[in-house]
Design goal:
Helices cover about 40% and strands about 15% of the residues. It has a 4-stranded antiparallel beta sheet, with helices on one face. The longest helix has 21 residues. By secondary structure, it is an alpha+beta fold. The two termini are about 25 Å apart. The protein is built from 4 helices and 4 strands.
Length: about 140
Amino acid sequence: MRILTYFAVFEPNGKGGYGVYFPDIAGCTSYGDNFKHAQSMAKEALGLHLYEMEKDEDALPVPTLDAGILNIDPATAAGYVISDITVYPDMIKNQLDNRAVKTNTTLPAWLKELAESRNVNFSHVLQAALKEQLGIGA
């Protein structure tokens, strides 16, 4: 199982909250109401960002291994904290790819009413039919 760790910069906002950015990953940012919340949100943001990058077939940035050589934005607020954030990309991919999502479909009213009268589970039937149509085993 892959493990990826990137350094995050936690920037205090003066009200107890922290903005978060990852110097190695442009556009990956987050926020938390306090430091612990910011760490949790940073982990979620990093996982989602890396998932989307891989989905788009973008190369993942090589993590900086030494916090002392991070490219800290000069506009970062005083009192910032650097902390490492670790994610498991394969677990995140599995969770996101297998989450339940809603989809809208149409069918004749009489068919819907008949199926409901017989307590048909529409989700189950649609999944089974799609798997059969696509040649995917159970």
